[in-house]
Amino acid sequence: xxARPMVFRPMLETRIACSVPGLMLAGFxxxxxxxxxxxxxxxxxxxxxxxxxxxxxxAYRMAVIVDGRTVTVRGxxxxxxxxxxxxxxxxxxxxxxxxxxxxxxxxxxxxxxxxRTSLWMFGNPVQQIADVAGHNQRTLRELxxxxxxxxxxxxxxRR
Length: 159
Hints:
The chain is α+β, with helices and mostly antiparallel strands. The chain is built from three helices and seven strands. The protein has helices at residues 12-36, 39-60, 130-147; strands at 6-8, 63-66, 70-74, 79-83, 87-91, 104-108, 114-118. α1 (12-36) runs antiparallel to α2.
């Protein structure tokens, strides 16, 4: 029986906060279109409302899923599945950015091309709430352990 995948999620509060922009988009556009009661405006607003709802749901479902063969990063807009054997490092946030320090997974594809995938859902904004920062640090520490990556994030402990 294969092992169950490990799912790493941001705190509930973070997922809800990330869902709000999509809900606001859907709400404002939908409300404005309904108030105008114009068929063309309603037709144009429909896809925007759907987009807002999809973004809200995807934001709520953000996660990193690790199973025996792959690492799937489920982001707000896109999901990316990376072969676990191709993961090279898990870096802490880029300190050159001003507001959000987003951790990244460095990996390579079958052709050997180096790639990076952002884990911004575990980022570290400058004014982050202590509970959220602690959760993100614990989550990244456990993710490193599961992937066999050293605490410095720069080399693999095992292949």
